[in-house]
Amino acid sequence: MALASPNALGHPRLGLIFSKKNVRRAVDRNRLKRIVRDSIRLQQQRLPAVDIVVLARRGVHELDNATVHRQLQGMWRRLEREASKSAREPDRHGTRSEDTHRI
Q: Who has greater pLDDT, 16 or 88?
């Protein structure tokens, strides 16, 4: 799961939260962090200027690298769509939405 909030930096930033409660072994947490960092590095030119926080769900460490990478690709596509949609559509109050989006 990921949360995203617009920033004024002109590029995406990444935060990672992989708790011991959800991913028990350090080697698994570090593997997942490496996969997420690599995925965002490859997609950063396509992503909007947002702060992204990736949260690990229980059981994610049981997935293989290719599956995690595919899920991240889908998440980045959804983020790209949501950001372009919210940039085009004003919210109910006539201003553009600056809220955090759940991906």
A: 16
Question: What's the pTM?
Answer: 0.78
Q: Using CA atoms, how far apart are residues 98 and 44, in angstroms rounded to an integer?
A: 20
Calpha distance 72→18 (Å, rounded): 15
Q: What is the pLDDT of residues 6-44, one digit of tens each?
A: 989 989 999 999 999 999 999 999 999 999 999 999 988
Domain range annotation of the chain: 2-87
* Opening angle at CA 9, ends 14 and 50, nearest 5: 45
CATH architecture under which domain 2-87 falls: 2-Layer Sandwich (3.30)
